[in-house]
Amino acid sequence: xxxxxxxxxxxxxxxxxxxxxxxxxxxxxxxxxxxxxxxxxxxxxxxxxxxxxxxxxxxxxxxxxxxxxxxxxxxxxxxxxxxxxxxxxxxxxxxxxxxxxxxxxxxxxxxxxxxxxxxxxxxxxxxxxxxxxxxxxxxxxxxxxxxxxxxxxxxxxxxxxxxxxxxxxxxxxxxxxxxxxxxxxxxxxxxxxxxxxxxxxxxxxxxxxxxxxxxxxxxx
Length: 220
What we know:
By secondary structure, the chain is an alpha/beta fold. 52% of the residues lie in helices and 10% in strands. It has helices spanning 11-26, 30-44, 46-58, 66-85, 111-122, 136-146, 163-172, 199-207, 212-219, and strands spanning 99-103, 128-129, 150-154, 177-181, 193-196. The protein is globular. Mean pLDDT is 89; it is low at 1-5.
């Protein structure tokens, strides 16, 4: 079985996957896109699937005409459903003292967080995924209730990727690891916040066990 953090898909497998998923999206068949997500994730791992198939297909879609918008929606929804179902156990208790994922305030996109959540489940590690557009006040409330050690905030565009706000949030919770993920964080993130530029790095950061001192500060 390939390593889900390091092994890339071979070039021929990538081209075949791109063609199959693209055709399903052009047919507006979100269910087939979702089924392909499950099939490809099981074979190659979520990080490789996300970085070599999903991102290259999603990036060029500009939504400039009605037909392209429909294809983009079919692709996005299929990817979301497939990643969300992958290795999910609805009966499993929500984790505490772990990883919390959320979209930045007013950020409507969160496919990257679905990819991260699926990649963590693939490694046997759950997370608390609160979805897109979470207000900063609600994120603070969630941190106080769930007491995670790591928080990842997704931003798709610079409109929602406000570096100063993420840094302020990180400083409000000493000992909490706070990361910004997604292309919206174009301004440098000052300590104690940090930027995650790729899914494998995000998985590694979320799986990293906090030092005892970090745990004590995060729990106070």
